[in-house]
Amino acid sequence: MERSRTFSESWHRVASQKIFLRPGVEVQRQQFRGERWIVLRNVLSNQFFRLRPEAYEFVARLQADKTVEEVWQECLERFPDEAPGQEAVVQLLAQLYHANLLQYQLAADAEQLFQRQRKRQQAEMGMRWLNIMFMRFPLLDPDRFLVRTLPWVGRLISPAGFVLWLAAIIWGGKVAIDNSTELMRQSEGILAPGNLIWLYLGMVIVKTIHEFGHAYFCRKFGGEVHTMGVMLMIFTPMPFVDASSSSGFRERKHRMLVGAAGMIVELFVAALATVLWAKTAPGVLHSVLFNMMFVASVSTLLFNLNPLMRFDGYYIFSDWLEIPNLNQRATGILKYWIERHGFGVKNDRNPARSRSEAGWLGTYGVTALVYRTVIFAGIIWFIADQWLLLGLLMAVACLITWLVVPAVKLVQYLASNPKLERTRSRAIAVVAGTVAALLILLGVIPFPHHFRASGVIQAKEWSQVIAEAGGEVAELLAKPGQTVRAGQPLVLLANPELALELAGAKAQKEEVESRLRAAMQRDSASVKPLEKRLESSVKLIQRLEKERENLVIRARHAGVWIAPGGEQMQQRWLKRGTPLGLVVNPAGFEFSATVLQEDVNRIFQREFPQAEVRLPGEAGKLASITQFRVVPGEQQTLPSPALGWAGGGDVAVNLKDQSGQKAVEPFFSVVGQFQSSGEVTLLHGRTGKVRFELPSEPLLPRWFRRLGQMLQKRFQF
Amino acid sequence: MGSWQRRSHRAGDLLARAAEVDGLAGKYSDFADAVLRERMGDFHEVFRRGGAPAKAQTLEALAAVREAARRCLGLNPFVEQLAGALALHENCLAEMATGEGKTLTAGLAGVLAGWLGRPCHVLTVNDYLVERDAAGLKSLYEFCGLRVAPVTAAMTPADRQKAYRADVVYVTSKELLADFLRDRLRLGELHNPERWMIRLVINPSRPPEGALVLRGLHTAIVDEADSVLIDEAVTPLIIAAARSNEGLKQAVELASKLSARLKREEDYTVDRRYGDVELTPVGMERVRLEGEVLPPFWRGQARREELIRQALVARELFHLGKQYVLEGVKVVIVDEFTGRTMANRSWREGLHQAIEAKEEIPLSDPTETLARMSFQRFFRLFPKLSGMTGTAWEAAGEFWQVYHLPVVRIPTHRPCQRVHRPDRVFVTEAEKWAAVAEEITQVQKLGRPVLVGTRSVQNSEMLSHQLFAAGLEHRVLNAKRFVEEAGIIARAGERGGVTIATNMAGRGTDIRLGPGVAGLGGLHVIATERHESERVDRQLFGRAGRQGDPGSAQAFVCVEDELLLRNLPAPHRKAVRATLRANAPGADLLARSAWKQSQRAAQRRAFKQRVGVLRQDTWLDEALSFAGMK
User: Fold this and answer.
1) Other CB atoms closer than 10 Å to residue B462's CB: what's the count?
2) Number of residue pairs across A and B with CB atoms under 8 Å?
3) Which of A504, A652, B393, B410 is the most exposed place for a label (fewest CB within 10 A)?
């Protein structure tokens, strides 16, 4: 606002008017940051109007039989120093008239009134579309219901109610701790597709109770609650209630309590739900209770308490700071600072009334701005990713409301805002400079770039140890974990059947041999078949002997003998082909990463790609790898089930597949050699994350590429 | 829809229809006077009823009015004038060059509008023209069955009331608006239609409009529309009453003394471009210390600094002979656009007193505004607004945006023979004035009359001194000598005449060439400065070469001109100066573009200011609608 002049050129319009505050306007004193303010409340529309005591001194003196001029003169005589100037009075009267707080003598200009209403409705519609992600639809007026039920419900809002609440919370907390393992187990599946419907149901129940919490608290302290309805939060219907009449409460404590009421009630619900949940067997009720508990505790504290979004936390925070309209004024002060220091606008009034208030407003403004940018970007990405074409359209709508509309407004503001009259070129230069700097930062300056993939450590030389013959484990010839030489026996199997078979075969051979000898002397005609028989029995013996040799399982190469079964294998019967363990040569390891097709190229943009591997549990330690090669050809089977969803990894796998190794999307294996193991213990089969260092690249092209890839993937462009 | 309507009025279309009217001339020329009069009565009746029949008979009626004009005035309107009249009748802004007979054009349109039976006001620039035109066209109007009356400043309320009862009223826009506002004040809260009706029902014997002067507002035909609707549109007309306020006077007096002790740059800074003054922190501190003497009401920081700033504005930005002149012990405001003095006007509360305090003359009582309205807001009230001017094209967009007036360019009857010579550019004022004097001498030697336009009273007096010194006979027309206006204008076109005039000479004056002058080359116009608005320049140049006469025009400008000082950034100005000094190649081009740019910047700023005032007015109307419109 410009400096307010003592004399106004519009003074004659109001000077002779006899106007005064409408009867029934409630006047309330409030303290904000140590300053006294007067809050006027229009009882009919439940609107509030805050003004300074000096201004109120003037407004309070307005009466039916005095003109504005007379009242002003009176004020000048009484408080020559503080009385508002004519311009301030004209402004004030215009605002009061706009808030429908004035009674005046002339019949109101009906056309003006209708126009004003139309304008207001249009503005509301506009706001609805601008808040497309949080659209509100008022449905009913709960006030009478609240008043009727308050005598019963209201009793809970008392010290006794607080004790009850506290007891419930403690009880619920105790039950939760007692059942913590079960809780943790069930929480893991909270976002599983099958649970979403229960989650939503729990949410609606809890949020309805939450909203009634606000309503009852507000009513208890005397505020009226006239609007209840449905809010489409990111297109998900949720209940809401308008308890804004609490802003007229004199006590800050009460205002804050109304803000916190939703959470207070929710925590109570969470406690009860926990107790009931622990007592019910699995089933629909159990699921709903669990989800209610989850929503009412975790999500409430995560979302509602957060002052950066405009939920309960914001209002509590704003009341606690004693800065009403925190968000609006925070934006105001950022604008003021930019205009003053960036654009060089003078004569503008600082929206903050004190240094500390300015500090709070500024901090809040910047934090909320950054936070919201991130959240909104996230929402847009999420929607576009989730709902295909419709999602894309909605994302475009969001982009328009959150990016294009503000940009157009900025241009309009720069081009024609009268405030910038004298410093327009500087303002344009500053904005253009900022935009250019941003573009350079994002579009020209390369940033180090990397990308992560999960993979598994494999020894260069390793083999699976398989029982090549069936048999009972008689002895572990080498202890698992021991380093073995090539050919060193590892396990001795005993197979009595094989021994018997061998003995039988040998006996048979002897029989054939003796029959052959006899035939040679007497019956030369049968020599030939007998020779054949002998040959076959020799072969049988050879085979069986080989098999017996196989009962001693040997290491095919030098390495460490790893047997997951360990000592428990003793005396177990193994079928032929059963895997016993691994022999892994620790001399050299490589890392096999699963990389999606679109990312493979990027790795090889560098001539000598560099990468570092991080292993879970050894977060601080790195091992670097080089000399990558791609295993040519797409693959579908993961090198380890631990990489897939089924095994707790992050590669999407086909859930129907038993092995858990069938990836949904084909991938490439990129294999790299460990340069030095560093401090990392390299173990065969260990999963880890590899971080590929890519050539530095500006951020903007990267983002566009990701967007392009997403579109391509979703729509097969 | 807007631009469609704007384009639907093409000059070509109008001219074609005007030619049609011209074709109908034969139809009425044989009628006896009595028959024609009777025919006029029929038209009157049709127009009064309005609707489609009136529309269908427009051309017929215009042809009849034309015939009447021929008989009553002895003037046979050209096709161009008929086109102009049609344009006015259809609520357009007609651009017609000087000397194209705008008075008659307005008369033709006035008859058509008068026939509608609703109040019709023809607005001219000054009382002289009001009386001249009303008297001149009286016979035409009467022939057509209409009463016409002039309203001038000198008339009493009773006379005014009587005059406004006429079908067509000639009046200046200032008088009309003032009467309108006074009527509003008289009506008081009755301007609300419901209250009016109730009052009429309750007390039918004493209709409240008895005391009212105006019949109402319906048709306005505005002459020099660009000046009225744009240049002066935001200066509000104020009905005020003096009210003594000793406290204010005392405070202003003290502030003036205090401000005289402050030093520029040290205590305050002046922004000439935007016309305001800022106190520096040092200045603020000084004002705090010395402000103890002020009356209690003015002691608060915001108030005392406002008061001091106002005193400084009076000191730094208002200059004797430029914004105001002294008549005895009175400060009289000078209109910067026309150079005329505006008696009985005063600046806003306090500022006027601050200037009086600076001049050390007794302070007048501050005036209390009773009603106030800008012309912009006023003319938007007319259901049927139309206008004429020589220069409208440049502001066509604004006419449309603010008044929904489409601009139509009516070609001149005879081709224009004016020679426009390129501007002569100088570095310093002294060089420029020397060259102007030289040029005047040269042209005057040829026997051609010269009209020199200056921007301020000061400049006109200075040039006059210079010419006196050179022994050159000349006449001066400025705010101080407005009494002789008509006489000076009448002789300005005579052989060898030299006339120095402030911008006022540009408007509504038709300089007829003396005998034999046309053969010498006609009137030569010298503009000694470029004006902020191109239109005003064109107005001045338009004095030469009227109605196909020969003539020439040239502007003399220098880097020290106020136009550049106020509108061109200092580095740019320095560059222009250096290039001119060095006489570098391309200096001409650079200078021309610099002047263009300055004018554009000035016009843009003025436009923004007007839009800002309009917005503010609209906001006030809405925000204070509980108080009614005043």
Assistant:
1) 16
2) 93
3) A652
Substitution target from A2, A3, A10 for chain B, most B beta carbons within 10 A: A10
> Cβ B296–A14 below 8 Å, yes or no?
no
Which of A232, A70, A222 is closest to A136 using CA atoms? A232
State whether residue A108 sits within 8 Å of chain B by CB.
yes
How is residue B568 annotated by DSSP? S
Give the CA radius of gyration of chain B: 27
- The CATH class that applies to domain A11-106 reads alpha beta
Residue B17: which H helix or E strand, with range?
helix B11-23
d(CA B183, CA A428): 48
Single out the residue of B413, B455, B546 nearest to residue B492, CA to CA. Answer: B546
- Short-list B105, B99, B54, B129, CA closest to B221: B105
Q: Which helix (H) or strand (E) holds B341?
A: strand B341-342
The whole-number pLDDT of residue A306 equals 84
B501: phi then psi, degrees, rounded to nearest 5: -140, 145
Among the residue ranges A337-351, B199-213, B257-271, B376-390, the one predicted with the least confidence is B199-213
Handedness of CA B80, B83, B89, B91 (dihedral sign): negative
**Locus of tokens 């090198």:** A639
Q: pLDDT value at position A167? A: 94
Domain boundaries, chain A: 11-106, 129-322, 333-445, 450-456+583-698+709-715, 464-574
Amino acid identity of residue A428, one-letter, is I
Of A46-60, A121-135, B128-142, B504-518, the least confident: B504-518
Residue B146: which H helix or E strand, with range? none
B186 vs A: CB within 8 A: no
ipTM, two decimals, is 0.76
Q: Does domain A450-456+583-698+709-715 have CATH number 2.40.30.170?
A: yes
Q: What is the pLDDT of residues B377-423, one digit of tens each?
A: 899 999 999 999 888 888 888 899 889 899 998 888 888 888 888 88
A279 shares contact with chain B (CB less than 8 Å): no
**How far is the C-alpha of A382 from the C-alpha of A692, rounded, in Å?**
26
User: Which of B278, B297, B625 faces A112 most closely, judged by CB atoms?
Assistant: B625
Closest CA to B426 of B588, B619, B614: B588
B468 φ, ψ (degrees, to nearest 5): -55, -45
Least CB-CB distance to B369: which of A12, A112, A346?
A12
Domains, chain B, with CATH or none: 2-237+375-409 (3.40.50.300), 244-365 (3.90.1440.10), 417-558 (3.40.50.300)
What order do you get walking across the sheet with B148-151 strand by strand? B148-151, B168-172, B120-124, B219-222, B384-389, B93-95, B407-409
C-alpha to C-alpha distance for A288 and A277, rounded to whole angstroms: 9
Residue A101 has which token pair? 């707080």
Q: What percent of chain B has pLDDT over 70?
A: 93
> Residue A350 gets which letter from DSSP?
P
Contact A420, A343 (CB under 8 A): yes
What is the rounded CA–CA span in Å between residue B247 and residue A260? 55
Of A39-43, B8-12, B65-69, B241-245, the range with the highest mean pLDDT is B65-69
Strand-pair category, B550-558 with B417-420: parallel
Put simply, whether B306 touches A (Cβ < 8 Å) is yes
Alpha carbon distance A271, B26 (integer Å): 103
CB A687 within 8 A of CB A616: yes
CA distance B246 to chain A (A): 14
- pLDDT reading at A537 higher than 70: yes
Structural tokens at position A223: 């505020």
- Compute the distance between CA of residue B485 and CA of residue B487 in angstroms, rounded to an integer: 6
Measured at the alpha carbon of residue B53, what is the angle toward residues B48 and B55, in degrees to the nearest 5? 85
- Alpha-carbon torsion A29, A31, A37, A41, what sign? negative
